[in-house]
Amino acid sequence: MTPSRLTALRRGRLTFHVHDTGPEDGEPVVLLHGFPEDSSSWDRVVPCLHDAGLRTVALDQRGYSPGARPRERAAYRLDFLVADVLAVLDATGPAHVVGHDWGGNVAWALAARAPERVRSLTVLSTPHPRALSRALVRSDQALRSLYVGFFQLPALPEAVLSRSMPSLLERSGLPADDAARYTDRMREPGALRAALNWYRALPLARRGVGPVRVPTTYVWGSHDAALGRRAAEDTEANVLAPYRFVELDAGHWLPETVPVEVADAVTGPPGAQRTTDAGSGT
After folding, report:
1. Is 199 a catalytic residue?
2. Structural domains in the chain (count)
3. pLDDT tens, 164-185?
4. Were 246 and a residue from 150, 214, 219, 278 both cysteine, which residue would form a disulfide, CB within 3.0 to 4.6 Å?
Protein backbone atom coordinates (compact mmCIF):
# COMPACT_ATOMS: atom_id res chain seq x y z
CA MET A 1 0.00 0.00 0.00
CA THR A 2 1.53 3.32 -1.05
CA PRO A 3 1.16 6.32 1.28
CA SER A 4 -1.32 9.07 0.43
CA ARG A 5 0.11 12.42 -0.57
CA LEU A 6 0.04 15.27 1.93
CA THR A 7 -1.20 18.58 0.57
CA ALA A 8 -2.29 20.16 3.83
CA LEU A 9 -1.83 19.61 7.54
CA ARG A 10 -4.61 20.63 9.93
CA ARG A 11 -3.93 21.30 13.59
CA GLY A 12 -6.94 22.74 15.35
CA ARG A 13 -7.77 26.01 13.62
CA LEU A 14 -4.48 26.08 11.72
CA THR A 15 -3.94 24.75 8.21
CA PHE A 16 -0.41 24.29 6.88
CA HIS A 17 0.70 23.93 3.26
CA VAL A 18 2.66 20.72 2.64
CA HIS A 19 4.56 19.85 -0.55
CA ASP A 20 4.84 16.06 -0.74
CA THR A 21 6.68 14.88 -3.86
CA GLY A 22 9.00 12.20 -5.19
CA PRO A 23 8.73 8.40 -5.14
CA GLU A 24 5.65 7.43 -3.16
CA ASP A 25 7.40 4.37 -1.75
CA GLY A 26 10.62 6.22 -0.92
CA GLU A 27 11.78 6.83 2.63
CA PRO A 28 10.34 10.19 3.72
CA VAL A 29 12.53 13.24 4.23
CA VAL A 30 10.87 16.12 6.09
CA LEU A 31 12.31 19.50 5.08
CA LEU A 32 12.10 22.48 7.47
CA HIS A 33 12.92 25.96 6.16
CA GLY A 34 14.22 29.00 8.01
CA PHE A 35 13.65 32.77 8.13
CA PRO A 36 12.44 34.38 5.93
CA GLU A 37 12.29 31.40 3.59
CA ASP A 38 9.44 29.01 2.83
CA SER A 39 9.26 25.48 1.49
CA SER A 40 10.45 26.69 -1.93
CA SER A 41 13.92 27.13 -0.43
CA TRP A 42 14.34 23.39 -1.04
CA ASP A 43 13.42 23.51 -4.74
CA ARG A 44 17.01 22.95 -5.93
CA VAL A 45 17.67 20.22 -3.36
CA VAL A 46 14.50 18.18 -3.87
CA PRO A 47 15.32 16.79 -7.37
CA CYS A 48 18.61 15.40 -6.06
CA LEU A 49 16.80 13.66 -3.20
CA HIS A 50 14.23 12.24 -5.60
CA ASP A 51 17.07 10.88 -7.76
CA ALA A 52 18.27 9.08 -4.63
CA GLY A 53 14.85 7.43 -4.28
CA LEU A 54 13.61 9.58 -1.42
CA ARG A 55 10.16 11.06 -0.87
CA THR A 56 10.31 14.71 0.19
CA VAL A 57 7.79 16.43 2.46
CA ALA A 58 8.40 20.19 2.68
CA LEU A 59 6.27 22.12 5.15
CA ASP A 60 5.42 25.82 5.06
CA GLN A 61 5.85 26.23 8.78
CA ARG A 62 3.81 28.12 11.34
CA GLY A 63 3.49 31.76 10.28
CA TYR A 64 4.51 31.01 6.69
CA SER A 65 1.33 29.16 5.70
CA PRO A 66 -1.47 31.74 5.30
CA GLY A 67 -3.85 29.45 7.17
CA ALA A 68 -1.45 28.98 10.09
CA ARG A 69 -0.53 32.54 11.04
CA PRO A 70 -1.55 33.33 14.63
CA ARG A 71 -0.81 36.89 15.75
CA GLU A 72 0.40 36.36 19.32
CA ARG A 73 4.10 35.63 19.89
CA ALA A 74 3.32 32.90 22.45
CA ALA A 75 1.98 30.76 19.60
CA TYR A 76 5.53 30.50 18.23
CA ARG A 77 7.18 28.85 21.21
CA LEU A 78 9.51 26.03 20.25
CA ASP A 79 7.20 23.45 21.82
CA PHE A 80 4.48 24.39 19.32
CA LEU A 81 6.87 24.42 16.37
CA VAL A 82 8.07 20.92 17.26
CA ALA A 83 4.49 19.72 17.69
CA ASP A 84 3.69 20.91 14.15
CA VAL A 85 6.43 18.66 12.76
CA LEU A 86 5.36 15.76 14.93
CA ALA A 87 1.94 16.06 13.29
CA VAL A 88 3.63 15.66 9.90
CA LEU A 89 5.45 12.58 11.20
CA ASP A 90 2.12 11.16 12.36
CA ALA A 91 1.24 11.01 8.66
CA THR A 92 4.59 9.92 7.22
CA GLY A 93 5.91 7.68 9.96
CA PRO A 94 9.52 8.00 11.15
CA ALA A 95 11.47 10.16 8.70
CA HIS A 96 14.82 11.67 7.91
CA VAL A 97 14.61 15.28 9.11
CA VAL A 98 16.47 18.18 7.49
CA GLY A 99 16.37 21.73 8.83
CA HIS A 100 17.98 25.00 7.84
CA ASP A 101 18.30 28.16 9.95
CA TRP A 102 15.22 28.29 12.24
CA GLY A 103 14.15 24.98 10.74
CA GLY A 104 17.44 23.63 12.06
CA ASN A 105 16.59 24.78 15.57
CA VAL A 106 13.25 22.97 15.34
CA ALA A 107 15.03 19.89 13.99
CA TRP A 108 17.50 19.81 16.90
CA ALA A 109 14.66 20.05 19.42
CA LEU A 110 12.59 17.41 17.62
CA ALA A 111 15.45 14.92 17.50
CA ALA A 112 16.32 15.52 21.16
CA ARG A 113 12.73 15.12 22.36
CA ALA A 114 11.42 12.39 20.04
CA PRO A 115 14.41 10.39 18.76
CA GLU A 116 12.22 7.39 17.93
CA ARG A 117 10.50 9.50 15.24
CA VAL A 118 13.74 10.58 13.48
CA ARG A 119 15.66 8.16 11.24
CA SER A 120 18.49 10.62 10.73
CA LEU A 121 19.07 14.32 11.29
CA THR A 122 20.72 16.80 8.94
CA VAL A 123 21.03 20.38 10.15
CA LEU A 124 22.25 23.21 7.94
CA SER A 125 23.89 26.37 9.33
CA THR A 126 22.30 26.34 12.81
CA PRO A 127 24.48 24.80 15.54
CA HIS A 128 23.03 22.87 18.43
CA PRO A 129 21.37 25.41 20.80
CA ARG A 130 23.70 24.52 23.69
CA ALA A 131 26.74 25.13 21.49
CA LEU A 132 25.29 28.45 20.36
CA SER A 133 24.64 29.53 23.95
CA ARG A 134 28.23 28.75 24.94
CA ALA A 135 29.57 30.60 21.92
CA LEU A 136 27.67 33.75 22.91
CA VAL A 137 30.08 34.21 25.84
CA ARG A 138 33.20 32.57 24.37
CA SER A 139 33.50 34.09 20.89
CA ASP A 140 32.23 36.87 18.66
CA GLN A 141 28.83 35.16 18.37
CA ALA A 142 27.09 37.81 20.50
CA LEU A 143 28.06 40.46 17.93
CA ARG A 144 26.86 38.23 15.10
CA SER A 145 23.53 37.79 16.91
CA LEU A 146 22.74 41.44 17.66
CA TYR A 147 19.92 41.38 15.11
CA VAL A 148 18.05 38.93 17.36
CA GLY A 149 17.80 41.63 20.02
CA PHE A 150 16.60 44.14 17.44
CA PHE A 151 13.88 41.72 16.35
CA GLN A 152 12.48 41.74 19.91
CA LEU A 153 11.31 45.34 19.48
CA PRO A 154 7.67 45.97 18.60
CA ALA A 155 6.79 47.30 15.13
CA LEU A 156 10.20 48.79 14.27
CA PRO A 157 11.68 45.60 12.74
CA GLU A 158 8.61 45.26 10.51
CA ALA A 159 9.02 48.86 9.36
CA VAL A 160 12.71 48.43 8.57
CA LEU A 161 12.43 45.06 6.86
CA SER A 162 9.41 46.01 4.78
CA ARG A 163 11.62 48.59 3.05
CA SER A 164 15.01 46.90 3.00
CA MET A 165 14.51 43.13 3.01
CA PRO A 166 15.47 42.42 -0.64
CA SER A 167 18.74 44.34 -0.45
CA LEU A 168 19.62 42.92 2.98
CA LEU A 169 19.04 39.38 1.78
CA GLU A 170 21.07 39.86 -1.39
CA ARG A 171 23.97 41.42 0.54
CA SER A 172 23.96 38.37 2.81
CA GLY A 173 24.55 36.12 -0.21
CA LEU A 174 21.03 35.04 -1.16
CA PRO A 175 20.41 34.94 -4.95
CA ALA A 176 18.25 37.83 -6.16
CA ASP A 177 15.38 35.66 -7.41
CA ASP A 178 15.10 33.93 -4.04
CA ALA A 179 15.27 37.26 -2.19
CA ALA A 180 12.43 38.62 -4.33
CA ARG A 181 10.28 35.53 -3.81
CA TYR A 182 10.70 35.51 -0.03
CA THR A 183 10.04 39.25 0.14
CA ASP A 184 6.79 38.79 -1.76
CA ARG A 185 5.72 36.15 0.77
CA MET A 186 6.56 38.47 3.66
CA ARG A 187 4.25 41.10 2.14
CA GLU A 188 1.23 38.88 2.67
CA PRO A 189 -1.07 40.08 5.49
CA GLY A 190 0.47 39.26 8.85
CA ALA A 191 3.37 37.28 7.37
CA LEU A 192 6.31 39.42 8.50
CA ARG A 193 4.98 39.82 12.02
CA ALA A 194 4.44 36.05 12.21
CA ALA A 195 7.97 35.30 10.98
CA LEU A 196 9.48 37.73 13.49
CA ASN A 197 7.42 36.16 16.26
CA TRP A 198 9.68 33.11 16.05
CA TYR A 199 12.40 35.38 17.48
CA ARG A 200 10.07 37.19 19.88
CA ALA A 201 8.99 33.90 21.41
CA LEU A 202 12.55 33.01 22.40
CA PRO A 203 12.23 34.50 25.91
CA LEU A 204 9.14 32.34 26.44
CA ALA A 205 10.97 29.03 26.10
CA ARG A 206 9.97 26.61 28.85
CA ARG A 207 12.79 24.11 28.43
CA GLY A 208 16.09 23.80 26.63
CA VAL A 209 17.23 21.40 23.96
CA GLY A 210 19.10 18.38 25.23
CA PRO A 211 21.64 16.13 23.53
CA VAL A 212 20.70 14.32 20.34
CA ARG A 213 20.85 10.54 20.11
CA VAL A 214 20.15 9.94 16.40
CA PRO A 215 22.66 9.77 13.51
CA THR A 216 23.43 13.40 12.68
CA THR A 217 25.13 15.41 9.97
CA TYR A 218 25.77 19.08 10.61
CA VAL A 219 26.61 21.30 7.61
CA TRP A 220 28.08 24.77 8.08
CA GLY A 221 29.22 27.41 5.61
CA SER A 222 32.54 28.93 6.59
CA HIS A 223 31.39 32.36 5.33
CA ASP A 224 28.20 32.43 7.38
CA ALA A 225 27.97 35.96 8.79
CA ALA A 226 25.34 35.08 11.38
CA LEU A 227 26.71 31.83 12.82
CA GLY A 228 30.39 31.53 13.65
CA ARG A 229 32.94 28.75 13.85
CA ARG A 230 33.03 28.31 17.62
CA ALA A 231 29.43 27.11 17.88
CA ALA A 232 29.79 25.06 14.70
CA GLU A 233 32.76 23.15 16.06
CA ASP A 234 31.25 22.74 19.55
CA THR A 235 28.08 21.17 18.18
CA GLU A 236 29.63 17.68 18.11
CA ALA A 237 29.69 17.54 21.91
CA ASN A 238 25.88 17.61 21.92
CA VAL A 239 25.39 14.58 19.66
CA LEU A 240 25.62 11.17 21.32
CA ALA A 241 25.36 9.17 18.10
CA PRO A 242 27.25 8.82 14.80
CA TYR A 243 28.11 12.34 13.73
CA ARG A 244 29.56 14.10 10.72
CA PHE A 245 30.56 17.76 10.41
CA VAL A 246 30.65 19.06 6.84
CA GLU A 247 32.23 22.47 6.35
CA LEU A 248 31.45 24.15 3.02
CA ASP A 249 33.06 27.10 1.28
CA ALA A 250 29.69 28.84 1.35
CA GLY A 251 27.61 31.36 3.24
CA HIS A 252 24.37 31.04 5.16
CA TRP A 253 21.92 30.17 2.39
CA LEU A 254 22.97 26.58 1.80
CA PRO A 255 19.79 25.09 0.24
CA GLU A 256 19.68 27.86 -2.35
CA THR A 257 23.40 28.15 -3.17
CA VAL A 258 24.88 24.66 -2.73
CA PRO A 259 21.95 22.28 -3.25
CA VAL A 260 24.01 19.35 -4.56
CA GLU A 261 26.27 19.45 -1.51
CA VAL A 262 23.22 19.67 0.75
CA ALA A 263 21.64 16.64 -0.92
CA ASP A 264 24.92 14.73 -0.60
CA ALA A 265 24.96 15.50 3.12
CA VAL A 266 21.42 14.20 3.51
CA THR A 267 22.03 10.97 1.61
CA GLY A 268 25.52 10.25 2.91
CA PRO A 269 25.88 8.22 6.12
CA PRO A 270 26.73 10.16 9.28
CA GLY A 271 30.00 9.08 10.79
CA ALA A 272 32.57 10.13 13.33
CA GLN A 273 34.57 12.24 10.92
CA ARG A 274 34.96 15.80 9.73
CA THR A 275 34.84 16.71 6.05
CA THR A 276 35.59 19.93 4.24
CA ASP A 277 34.15 20.59 0.80
CA ALA A 278 34.82 23.40 -1.64
CA GLY A 279 31.16 24.15 -2.33
CA SER A 280 30.07 26.87 -4.70
CA GLY A 281 28.35 29.43 -2.49
CA THR A 282 29.37 32.88 -1.41
Report:
1. yes
2. 1
3. 999 999 999 999 999 999 999 9
4. 219
Spatial strand order of the sheet with 273-277 comes to 8-11, 14-21, 55-59, 28-32, 95-100, 118-124, 216-221, 243-248, 273-277
d(CA 168, CA 170): 6
To the nearest whole number, what is the mean pLDDT of the chain?
94
Q: Is residue 2 part of a domain?
A: no
Per the CB < 8 A criterion, the answer to whether 80 and 113 are in contact is: no
Q: How confident is the model at residue 269 (pLDDT cuts 50, 70, 90)?
A: confident
**Distance in Å from the first CA to the final CA of the chain:** 44
How far is CA 248 from each of CA 89, 179, 202, 263, 281, rounded to the nearest angstrom? 30, 21, 28, 13, 8
* 168 in a structural domain: yes
The parent domain of residue 116 ranges over 8-277
How far is the C-alpha of 17 from the C-alpha of 67, rounded, in Å? 8
Omega of the bond prior to 66 within 30 degrees of 0, cis? no
What's the pTM?
A: 0.95
Say which CATH number the domain at 106 has.
Answer: 3.40.50.1820
Q: Catalytic residue, from 84, 101, 178, 234: name it.
A: 101
- CA atoms of 24 and 47, how far apart (whole Å): 14
223 is known as an active-site residue:
no
Which residue out of 17, 96, 100, 252 is catalytically annotated?
252
Residue 1 lies in a domain: no
Q: Which one of the listed residues 182, 199, 218, 243 is annotated catalytic?
A: 199
The CA distances from residue 146 to 107, 153, 227, 265, in Å, are 23, 12, 11, 30
3-state secondary structure 63-130: CCCCCCCCCCHHHHCHHHHHHHHHHHHHHHCCEEEEEECHHHHHHHHHHHHCHHHEEEEEEECCCCHH
